Amino acid sequence: MPIIDAHVHLYSPELNRDPAAWAAAHAEPHWAALCTRVRKSGRPVQAFPSVDELLRAMDAAGVDRAVLLGWYWENPATCAGQNRFYAACVQAHPDRLSGFATVHPSAGKDALAELRRAHGEGLVGLGELSSHSQHVAMDDAHWLEVLALAGELGLPVNLHVTDPVPTAGNYPGRVETPLEDFITLARLFPKVNFILAHWGGCLWRTVAALPDNVFLDTAASPLLYAPEVFAEGVRACGADRVLWGTDYPLELYPREAGRETVAGFLTEARAALPPAARDAVLGGNAARLLGLGA
Ligand SMILES: [Zn+2]
């Protein structure tokens, strides 16, 4: 069974050269607040690796494929730029990388055209989006049109979710994402598979039953939860609902010098998962949602 990291972010060489200056020039302050932040220890929250550095981190960990996720940018032009960059990445490494498109829902018809274009270029999902962070109401007509098109194109949708009970996750730039909103969307679009990032904010603790089209990923888990969340999440939601994903290049072990995000978290997940759930969570579920053959 392949090992698939279902939640990775990469950026263009232009952005990587000077992320803070790039964010200022492109009017992306929210992204800058989250991704160019420096911890109290003085360490940046993440580095800005190239595609080749990602592939080396995957090789070192024994990861077969990574899913490149977009970002909930504040500007449609930034979304389009990232889509072009991701299309080039997956065309260069179709055996190792899959990519999701991103759009700004308020762009209306242009957002729909951008999603069609990105899909035509080989991107196979939509997200990571956060309508809450993009200041788009959950019942916004353009947002609902974007989700309807994702359904028409058969694209899974990854959405950023924060836990309503913040523990270690109470970081600067955090935006509340009411969990009922995601259940409402999933019921509204039963044909769209929704992947709720960051364990979906552990929504099984408050929502009685998950709709069949709701999945969770484990992005950033070591920063948010103890390893026991793996057993709890699988028990509550089922092994077929959880996708292992890192949130690379976010540094997941800031207090452990030398512990790599991808390799370190794969080791943690393997040890924390019930043995019967390992194949599904570490790659089988992602392969199924992405339509990847064995
Ligand atoms: Zn996220």
List the helices and strands and how they pair.
Blueprint: E1 4-8, H1 13-17, H2 19-25, H3 29-35, H4 51-61, E2 65-68, H5 76-92, E3 97-101, H6 109-120, E4 125-129, H7 141-153, E5 157-159, H8 179-188, E6 194-196, E7 214-217, H9 221-224, H10 229-237, E8 242-243, H11 261-272, H12 278-290
Helix pairs in contact: 4-11, 5-6, 6-7
Describe the structure.
This protein is α/β, with parallel strands linked by helices. The chain is 41% helix and 11% strand. It has helices spanning 13-17, 19-25, 29-35, 51-61, 76-92, 109-120, 141-153, 179-188, 221-224, 229-237, 261-272, 278-290, and strands at 4-8, 65-68, 97-101, 125-129, 157-159, 194-196, 214-217, 242-243. Strands 1-2-3-4-5-6-7-8 form an 8-stranded parallel sheet, with helices on both faces. Helix 5 runs parallel beside helix 6 and helix 6 (109-120) packs parallel to helix 7 (141-153). The mean pLDDT is 94. Zinc ion is lined by residues 128, 160, 197-198, 219.
Give me the side-by-side strand order of the main sheet.
Answer: 1-2-3-4-5-6-7-8
- Could you say how many structural domains there are in total? 1
Shape, please? globular
Structure summary, number of beta strands: 8
What Rg do the Cα atoms give?
17 Å
Describe the structure using short key phrases.
294 residues, alpha/beta, TIM Barrel, 8-stranded parallel sheet, 12 helices, globular, binds zinc ion
Sum this structure up briefly.
The protein has 294 residues and is of the alpha/beta class.
